[in-house]
Automatic annotation (TrEMBL):
InterPro entries: ArsR-like_HTH (IPR011991), LexA (IPR006200), LexA-like (IPR039418), LexA/Signal_pep-like_sf (IPR036286), LexA_DNA-bd_dom (IPR006199), LexA_repressor (IPR050077), Peptidase_S24_LexA (IPR006197), Peptidase_S24_S26A/B/C (IPR015927). It is an enzyme of class 3 (hydrolase). This is SOS-response transcriptional repressor, LexA. Its EC number is 3.4.21.88. NCBIfam families: lexA. Coiled coil: none annotated. It comes from the Bacteria. Residues 11-65 form the LexA repressor DNA-binding domain. GO terms for biological process: DNA repair; DNA replication; negative regulation of DNA-templated transcription; proteolysis; SOS response. Keywords: Autocatalytic cleavage, DNA damage, DNA repair, DNA replication, DNA-binding, Hydrolase, Repressor, SOS response, Transcription, Transcription regulation. Belongs to the peptidase S24 family. It comes from Acidimicrobium ferrooxidans (strain DSM 10331 / JCM 15462 / NBRC 103882 / ICP). Residues 79-195 form the Peptidase S24/S26A/S26B/S26C domain. One of its GO terms (molecular function) is DNA binding.
Amino acid sequence: MTRENPEVREAILAYVTQVVEERGWAPSVREIADAVGLKSPASVQHHLRRLERDGRLVRSPLKARSLSVARRAPSAAVPVLAEVGAGYHVVPEVEVETSVAVPASMAAPGAFALRVRGHSMVDVGILDGDLVVVAPSDVAADGDIVVASVGDDVGTVKILRRNGSSVWLEGANEDDPSLAPMPWNETCHLHGRVVGVLRSYDGAAVR
């Protein structure tokens, strides 16, 4: 079994990147092995497959030695400011956790992320533990997913609905009969619109 070695993998990626940029096509497995000091071609293949699986290298099945370096979209860091309820039992703000990288298209001025707790938005793909990326705004259209505070320093993620002069917040979980629309009133405050959702499968947030 090939031993996992992130340093070797990074060296392989750097070498492939350099060779592709210099001559326009990828090095052979033997060239990679010689460059990074590996004796076994199987070890090189293992690291190449891992880099492909991680989305860092791309291989065309139509031609040999067709590895290319995946080009990632520009990203920006936004702070993770709080936990927010996806149910009507909302969660008070907590200290800043960290920052998280998001596509630059999501990083509006002042954008921030909130960690969701609860299950009332599962029907629109927002699950317990997800991070939602929020663009600050004090206006929202009918059907927008928003973050709003209700009362003092608490927040919730909901769908904003409008019908004439009536405004309310509603969840999205058909399996929860306890959910009921929340009328908008003087205790409610709109903080922004949800513009993205990040989910973690192995401890790292992903888009």
